[in-house]
Every structure is written in C-alpha cells, then in structure tokens.
C-alpha cells in the first residue's frame, strides 16, 4: 500500500493559432502554470540574494483542502482549493492578498487513499482564460478578468476514467488553441484534446490510465510535439491530430505512481519515478526512440521534478513516506553523480539564476548554490508549521507557498525573498 499522499500537477501558456510552437509568451514576473513559465521549475529573469535575516511574510490567507500550488500572472494570484461541497478558485492581488473575485464549482471528487479531497492541479493561466482541473476530473475555463465561467466538462465521468489513488492530478497543457488533458479514459481516451474557447473535444488518443506527471512540449525538427507520461507508458504525439509519433514503456505495475514532470532540452527527454523505476534519458530525435542513459539507482524521484541548470540536474531521490529524501547533482549528458546530500528530505526545487531554492515538505526553505563542485548552502528559513506538499510559485521576488494544516484546511503564504 502507498502510505502517504504524493501528488503534483498543471500546464503551458498564452494562445497562438499555429501548432509550430507551444503557446509560450514568457514574461519575467509571471508563474502562470505548474513549474513556472516553461514548466521546468526555472524562474525567468529572476534572482534571489542570500538573506541574513528571515524574509518577511507579506500576507497570508486561509484556503480549504487540496495540494494545488498557486499560479501568478499580471499582478494576480490564483489559488484552487475545496471548501466542503465546492471547489473554489480565488483570485487575489499580489501586493496585499485582497480578494479580487471568486469562482465556485460543485466538488465531485469523493476521495481515495488520501483523506484530502481538494484539487491537486495548479491553475493554468493562458491569455484571458484560466483553466481549472478538479480532483474529480472536471475541467473548467473561466475569465481572468472576473471569474465568469465559460465552459465546464466532467471529463473523467464522460470518458469513464478511474479516480486512481488520489484523483485527477496531471495538469493540462495548451498548444495554440488546443488544450490537452491526461484523462485516462476508456476506448482510446487516455489523452483528450479540447478547443480552448468552446470546450468541445477535438480528438482522443491512447489506451492508458492517467498518471500524476504533467505533459510537456518538446521541439523535434522544428515542430512542437507533446510528451505525456501515463500510468505505464510515455507517448509523444502530434498536438494537432493526436497521432502517436513515439511510445515506450515507463512505470511499474502495482501501488506505484509516475508523478515527476519530464525535463527536456535539445531533443532530449529525462524521466524519473520511484518504486523501482529509476530514471531514463532518451533521444527523441531518433527513430525509433533511443536511450541515451538509464539507471535505477541514481535518481528515483517519488514526485519531485528535478531542475536543470547549465549541464547539471539537481534532484531529490527517494521516498517521502520512507524518509529517504536525498539531494544530488547529476551530469545531464551521462548521469554521472557530482555530489550527494543524504538526509536532505523531500523538497520542491526551483531554479533562480545560479541558485536553487528548496521548499521542504516539512516547512523549511533553503537556498543553495547551483554548483557541481560541492553542495553549498547560502541561507535557510523556517516557515510557519505545517505540511508544504503543494508546489510553490515565484514572481517578482515573492515566493507563494501553501501549507496544509489538516485534510480540510490550508493557507497561502506570500514570502518576500527580495527585500
């Protein structure tokens, strides 16, 4: 049995009409989706200096259930949570946390292994729309300006998908005007593509259950492809048609999850999972797809996505529920380990220039140098007591982190790291 809830989530950005490139209008100061502007845990044009005094908490606000991290765009913070029988999107001002508007939806998820029944997916902000994927597999689009609901689909119900261990947790991705969702439904509806404006289905593909890793975009021969990690298989697809262009096994049967989002660079794809799966680097330009290197004892991340800075991966290996979280630095090209930091604990990692910020699940921030020579800690800070399993967001020098106090209550905290 899985012993504790371990999930992540969510998406890519602004709309353009061509499938030649992902809809990315990368803007410094925005964190509009899971893992930031490029879905890789790297903040664009942002840095943080080592602090001597504990950074100031600018504001904090109560939320309901869920592990969905915040999204930040154009002076607005979006937090997706559950209060009793409603899933709620709160839109808050970045400067003081005041409420700008709120959107509410029926909460249809009835629970699984984890007592927390709130949303798992980070909201996706794209142009003038915000997309929300609930724990029960209900997908909605609302207006950024005022929260007006534009459309809603109960995808897991429509396509007869199983809730899995923790409900829906893989965040959608946008290419052009197409929103692609890992639904995990029957009759080749593992992936479902929708029109962003109407919510109507464009195509369905793949006979696979959904996982908890979120899809990513990759450029292959000048064309945008989508890579989706599913329950036991990873696929590369054409986002225009849903045609499968490459596929390979990745995962393990039994009580396991694939939850870390893939990392891509120059046509290479890096995957990792725990539960005996390990890690794998593939050359996605080759036909058939070719292993560059793989290992079951270098990086085995239960759910934390590594960050890639220069030619080095910084990653957490091990399992939170076993207390085996270890930080390590690994060479991107061949998996050679530069250094290890045993006992580091499970932590979300975020790249900020030549530094990395770690947010431990136990509630401590640690800033360290992104250097392959040796681990070098620069500053630490204890956050208010709680569990910090939700992904953090970073925008204009401010960290937005969410602490869970119980299975029904949490809090969003804005921490000023550049004072």
From TrEMBL:
Region forming the signal peptide: 1-25
Any matching Pfam family: PQQ_2
InterPro entries: PQQ_rpt_dom, Quinoprotein_ADH-like_sf, WD40/YVTN_repeat-like_dom_sf
Domain Pyrrolo-quinoline quinone repeat, first and last residues per copy: 46-205
Gene3D superfamilies to which the protein is assigned, alphabetical: YVTN repeat-like/Quinoprotein amine dehydrogenase
Keywords, ordered alphabetically: Signal
Domain of life from the UniProt record: Bacteria
Protein name, per record: Outer membrane protein assembly factor BamB
Protein species of origin: Aporhodopirellula rubra
